[in-house]
Amino acid sequence: MEVDILSEDENSMLHRTDIQFEIAHEDATPSRLSVRDSLAAKINKDSDEVVVHKLDTKFGMRKTIGYAKVYDSPQSARQVEQDYMLKRNKIEIESEDEDSAAEGA
Fold first, then answer.
1. 45, 71, 82, 92, 97 from 63: Cα distances, Å
2. Most-buried pick from 57, 102, 103, 104 (CB within 10 A)?
3. Tell me: the pLDDT tens digits for 57-95?
């Protein structure tokens, strides 16, 4: 699987970079997690800082166009992203009970 970055847009207000990328693959469309790991390796980031939003493969093609958000830190990703998107990308969600317990200690 080969990842090519098509465009990068810096979003300093949300501490992230929006990336459009293209993947050339031999078999079926790769999973979201394998794409996330490959993209993170390509840009030298931790996989918890990368949130893949969209993967689009045209029928019969061996190319996938995708959209991802790369955050400065995993905490920034947890603060900004919606819970369902964090679950799709297997990024651990901090619960409110843990937060209140940590603040009380």
1. 23, 25, 28, 29, 43
2. 57
3. 988 889 999 999 999 999 999 999 999 999 999 988 876
